[in-house]
Amino acid sequence: MNLGEKIDRLYRLREERLRLQRQADEVKKQENVVKDELLELMQIEGITKAAGEIASISIGIDIYPRVVEKQKFYRWAVENNRFDLLQSSVNKAPIKEMVELENELPPGVEVYTDWKVTSLRKK
After folding, report:
1. Domain spans of the chain?
2. What is the pLDDT of residues 49-81, one digit of tens each?
3. Phi and psi (nearest 5°) for 85?
4. Distances (CA, A) of 20 to 9, 79, 85
5. Rg for the chain (alpha carbons), in Å?
6. Phi/psi class of residue 79: alpha, beta or left (left: φ > 0; alpha: ψ in -120 to 50)?
7. What pLDDT, on the 0 to 100 scale, is given for residue 120?
8. What is the model's pTM?
9. In whole angstroms, what is the distance from residue 75 CA to residue 101 CA?
């Protein structure tokens, strides 16, 4: 297979993946509708567990933290040595800008580079 044929194969594979992803997204929407219906029915009936012939479900309450004042939260986490509350990811865009403009990184951060292939349909 020559270079052009490989490029076209990549494009066809990407299109197939996107088609399947759209199908999966639609199935996920249907799942969410049924989950919402089940949640409502179980709440009305006052039950937390139920079963069909091939599956069972349970419902419960979970918490989802959201930081509303970053500076206060970060200061508190440092003062109380609660780094376990933080996730260790760095926003790529400002780091990339720092490297491009200043050729500098914040202490404790390093970057690596990797190749990226972008496939576009010819016009």
Report:
1. 1-62, 64-110
2. 999 999 999 999 999 999 999 999 999 999 999
3. -80, -10
4. 16, 48, 37
5. 24
6. alpha
7. 79
8. 0.69
9. 29
